[in-house]
Amino acid sequence: MPYGDPMNARVRSEERRAEIVRAALEVIAERGYRGASLAAVAERVGLTQQGLLHHFPTKEALLVAVLKERDQWDAVPDTQWRIDLLASLVEYNAMRPGIIQTFSALLGESVTDGHPARGYFTERYAQVRESMAAALRAEYGDRLPNGLTPERTAPLLVAVMDGLQYQWLLDPESVDMPGAFRDFLSLLGENPANPENPENPA
């Protein structure tokens, strides 16, 4: 056997897994997690269900791969969010409705008892609230201009981001998701802690 064959096989397997994850994203966006079958995903990538199970032994394993893939797209290199990056993320999300639809469908389903993504979303929201509080503290200090602490504001910030996604998915012509999010940021108040802000000199 040629020396390069094992490496080539591994690369082909990784490419196939990525193809399956993309197909799963599409199927979940169309049918929701409970309506998305492994057979439907396998058919979309030209595999038998048994062939798909070679890469993902269970539907739950495939779901975890889908969620991890989604998180990779939103990852920030230094793991520290900034308020200005949040506005850019919302603009980016407006350019990928399929991904947002999949995430929103899974999020809505995950609130039911026994859903395999419930633990993932519970943990994710705890981490996101913590990250948002840190971003708000870096921007405003211990109190925002409205008097709220970063910890009390963080859940509101996350709620606006995800709530806008649902409204935008339902009626994209009527809901300017990036614009509405920028409007919300303006409600937080001007930033007195940022010396680079010309309207709020240090």
Please identify the structural class as seen in this structure: mainly alpha
Q: What is the terminal separation in angstroms? A: 69 Å
Q: What does the overall shape look like?
A: elongated
Q: Specify the number of helices.
A: 9
Main beta-sheet annotation: none
Question: How many strand segments?
Answer: 0
Helix content: 55-70%
Mean pLDDT: 84
Order of helices and strands: HHHHHHHHH
Q: Would you identify the regions where 5 or more consecutive residues have pLDDT less than 50?
A: 192-202
Strand content: under 5%
Radius of gyration: 20 Å
Structure description:
It is built from 9 helices and no strands. The termini are far apart. 70% of the residues lie in helices and 0% in strands. It is mainly alpha-helical and 202 residues long. The radius of gyration is 20 Å and the shape is elongated.
Defining key terms:
9 helices, disordered C terminus, mainly alpha, single chain, 202 residues
Short structural summary:
The protein is mostly helical. The protein is 70% helix and 0% strand.
